Amino acid sequence: MLTQLTQEFGKRLRYWRNKRGLSQDELEIASGVTQQTISRCELGTRRTSLRTAERLLDALNVSISDFFEEEINNG
Known about the structure:
mainly alpha
């Protein structure tokens, strides 16, 4: 179950980052989260702490409810 949640978070992180027109490097600058961590989160190979998720969502200017509620493509 945790792996599925980790992958879903990563998929949604990539979706929102692209929706905001940001590269991983730009999101790193805006959030203070390293590009390597962002990449691993998006690939679903790294668990995301609550603090890291908060920093990323703040930088993307998206609420937690919108982050998980908006329909995204599975591709």
